[in-house]
Structure formats: C-alpha cells, structure tokens
C-alpha cells in the first residue's frame, strides 16, 4: 500500500533490485552553514581552484565539502532512528566495525567487511562546492585553553611564569556562517520506503564536519527532487550556474554573506535551465510543484506513527533483499573457501 499520495507509483521500484534498473531520484539540496564548521583534511580546510561560473571564466578557489563529509552524518542519523524505534541494536550493527547486513542503512548506503561480504551504496553523493570564494567564506580563529580561574594565562604551574600565556594556543581556519553548498544527493532504483528514508535523513541531519558536538551546524534546504532514467548535472556545474545567475542579478555583495532568498531563487532558476539541456527522460518537482510533496513528507516524518511506518517498511524491504541476495553471496563465498 502506497504511503505517498503526491507521487505516482511508476517512479518507484516495488522491491530493492539486485541489478541496476535505471531509475534515479535526485534530491536538490542547498547546505547552509549556521555556525563555524570544519571540512578539512590534514588540518587544512578543503578547497579547490575552479572556474567561477559556467559563463564567468574567472578562476577562483572554493571551499569543498567531500562526499563522505555529507553521506556519513546522514546515514548516522538514520541509524540512530532505527535504534530508537527498535529496528536495530548497537550490538548487532556497529558502524564501520560490524555490520548486520540486513537493515535499511546497510542495504541503502552500503557496507564492506572483508570476506564477510559487501554491498554497494545506492546513494551517490559527490563533492559540493561553496558558491562564494574561499577568501570570503572562511576566517582564522586563535584557539587557547582557559584555566579554572577563567583566564587564558597560567598560574605559574609547570615552570611557566604567573600571568604568562602558555603555548597551548593554536590557529584554525573555520568556515563562516551563511556559506552555501549546493549538493545533489542521488538514490538509485528507489522504492517508496527507501526514497522516504533518505529524504528524512537529509532533512534531519544538522551537524557536518569535524567536532560535530561543538560546532558544524548546517541546515539542509531542499528545493526539489528530480526523477530520471539517468544521472543529471554535477554539483560543480550547478554551483557555477548559480554564481552566474547571482552575478547577473547583482546579488553577489562581497564581503557580505549571500542572502538566502537570493540563493534559493538563483538555485531554482539554474537547475531548471540545466535540466532543460539534459538529454534524459526526467520529471521535475521544483518550486511550486515541490511544495505539496515536501509538506506531505514533513507531515509523515513529523509524527511517530508516520516515521514508524516508513522505517518498518524500509526494514522489511532490506531484510527481504538480504535474504535473497546477501545470504546467497555469503554462502557462495563460504563454498569457495571450502
């Protein structure tokens, strides 16, 4: 029985297929920083030297949000929900340690545990790039450790002089608030339940990057979903097209942060123009067409009865898939060793 009323059943698979069947759904997401997150490797913020726009050929440095910095927090939110509603325990399935191989997280997002088995992720996420340039999107903080007396200076302990600032000072680049990262999250061969599971994870995830308990607050705003028989444009090209739109509209007001309404308008216009150039079969829910869909999804995921129905259906599909295909792979691997 269908859960959603706003989308035709033809866009979904009736069960999770073992082989790719050429159905895709693309979640058009704008990730907005709301504190000072860290997307870094080797103590430096990730960045890339790229062209500013599709039309604007100026070269700039942009902040980069690598794919695992996006997908890992989202799947961890899903795992938390599965445990909360009794569909998974920490003992039977521990992330990156011991996968149960038969729950929605393992089947939808994939896993790899050596000889025990593996499953390729059905969620495709690529590196996202900031709309604004690196220099406008980050700032350097000096970090130091306060003592119990509330000061940043020592009390003469460990050989240091009283009142002297100790060497426990460090500098760290942080991404500024109100930096925008357009990101397309793709789900291959969605069932209705897996579509809602991934959709809900994107909506619920609030922290990305390093030190997620102290900073890293990010809000995800979806501007639409696209059902297609293939992949669509890249995050970089969408970001460059947004930049062109905003430059044309004179809404790039550096060094001031971008206005969110301007970004959303430019993002919708840019993706609609890019989709018009695609050569695949696609059905777009963007702008007004998306409003009724996201309202229906939020109503479902905002009630205990609704979220339980989604999780239970996703879990039943995952266990059915694991019984048919994962168990078979494990048996074949065992027979091969013998």
Counting helices, strands and paired strands, the structural category is alpha+beta
Domain tally: 1
Total number of strands: 14
Helix-strand pattern: EEEEEHHEEEEHEEEHEHHEHH
Q: State the end-to-end distance.
A: 44 Å
Question: What composes the largest sheet?
Answer: 5 strands, antiparallel
User: What fraction of residues sit in β-strands?
Assistant: 15-25%
What is the helical fraction, as a range of percent? Answer: 25-40%
Overall morphology: globular
Low-confidence stretches: 331-338
**What's the arrangement of strands in the largest beta sheet?**
8-12-1-13-14
Supply the number of helical segments: 8
Averaged pLDDT: 87
What integer value in Å does the Rg equal?
A: 23 Å
Describe the structure in your own words:
The protein is an alpha+beta fold and 338 residues long. It has one domain. The chain contains eight helices and 14 strands. It has a five-stranded antiparallel β-sheet with strand order 8-12-1-13-14, with helices on both faces. A three-stranded antiparallel β-sheet has the order 4-5-9. A two-stranded antiparallel sheet has the order 2-3. Strand 2 and strand 3 (44-45) form a beta hairpin. The longest helix is centred in the C-terminal third of the chain and has 34 residues, at 304-337. The model is unreliable at 331-338 (pLDDT under 50).
């Amino acid at each position: 029985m269908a859960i959603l009323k706003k989308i035709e059943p033809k866009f979904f698979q009736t069960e999770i297929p073992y082989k790719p069947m050429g159905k895709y759904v693309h979640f058009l997401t704008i990730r907005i920083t709301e504190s000072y997150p860290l997307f870094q490797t080797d103590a430096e913020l990730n960045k890339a030297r790229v062209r500013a726009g599709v039309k604007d050929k100026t070269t700039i440095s942009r902040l980069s949000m690598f794919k695992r910095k996006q997908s890992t927090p989202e799947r961890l939110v899903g795992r938390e929900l599965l445990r909360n509603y009794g569909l998974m325990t920490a003992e039977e399935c521990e992330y990156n340690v011991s996968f149960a191989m038969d729950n929605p997280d393992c089947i939808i997002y994939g896993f790899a545990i050596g000889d025990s088995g593996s499953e390729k992720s059905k969620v495709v996420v690529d590196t996202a790039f900031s709309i604004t340039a690196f220099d406008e999107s980050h700032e350097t903080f000096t970090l130091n450790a306060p003592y119990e007396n509330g000061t940043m200076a020592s009390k003469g302990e460990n050989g240091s002089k009283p009142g002297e600032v100790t060497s426990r000072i460090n500098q760290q680049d942080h991404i500024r608030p109100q930096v925008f990262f357009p990101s397309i999250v793709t789900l291959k061969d969605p069932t209705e339940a897996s579509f809602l599971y991934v959709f809900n994870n994107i909506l619920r995830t609030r922290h990305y990057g390093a030190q997620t308990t102290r900073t890293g607050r990010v809000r995800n705003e979806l501007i639409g979903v696209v059902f297609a028989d293939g992949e669509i444009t890249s995050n970089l090209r969408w970001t460059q097209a947004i930049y062109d739109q905003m430059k044309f509209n004179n809404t790039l007001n550096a060094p001031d942060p971008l206005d969110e309404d301007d970004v959303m308008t430019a993002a919708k216009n840019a993706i609609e123009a890019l989709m018009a150039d695609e050569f695949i079969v696609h059905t777009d829910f963007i702008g007004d067409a998306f409003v009724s869909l996201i309202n229906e999804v939020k109503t479902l995921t905002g009630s205990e009865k609704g979220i339980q129905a989604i999780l239970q259906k996703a879990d039943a599909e995952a266990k059915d898939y694991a019984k048919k295909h994962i168990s078979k792979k494990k048996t074949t691997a065992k027979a091969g060793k013998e």
